[in-house]
Write a structure and sequence with these properties.
four-stranded antiparallel sheet; globular
Length: 110
C-alpha cells in the first residue's frame, strides 16, 4: 500500500496532467515552451542538483516533475524567478516534497 505522502505526490501530479490535457486556453502543445523551460533549468541550476522526469508544455503553461538531492537550490531557483521576472516571464507554482526529494512545478507564461 502506498503511503499518504506518495498518494499526495501522485495525486498532485495527476491533477496537473488533467489540467494541461483538458485546458485548451493555454494554447497548443509546444516544443518551444518545453525547450524554454529546460533551458531555464540548465541556465539557473547546476545539472547535478536536479533531474527532470517529465516536462509537458502548451504554449502558455508547462508542468514539470523533478527530483533533487537538496531542496535548497530548487527553492533558491524559484525565489529568483519571482524576484527577477525577466528571467522567465512566468509564474511558477510548486508542490515540493523534501522527504521524497521530488516536486511538481507548474509554470504559467505571461
Amino acid at each position: 500500500m502506498l503511503s499518504e505522502d506518495a498518494l499526495d505526490w501522485g495525486q498532485a501530479y495527476n491533477r496537473l496532467i488533467d489540467e494541461i490535457n483538458q485546458t485548451e486556453e493555454h494554447g497548443d502543445w509546444s516544443y518551444t515552451s518545453q525547450t524554454r523551460i529546460r533551458q531555464l533549468f540548465s541556465q539557473q541550476l547546476s545539472s547535478d542538483s536536479y533531474a527532470l522526469n517529465h516536462v509537458l508544455c502548451r504554449e502558455k503553461m508547462c508542468i514539470v516533475e523533478l527530483l533533487f538531492d537538496d531542496i535548497q537550490p530548487i527553492i533558491d531557483f524559484l525565489d529568483k524567478l519571482r524576484r527577477e521576472p525577466q528571467l522567465c516571464d512566468c509564474v511558477p507554482m510548486e508542490h515540493l516534497w523534501p522527504q521524497r526529494n521530488a516536486g511538481n512545478i507548474k509554470f504559467v507564461f505571461n
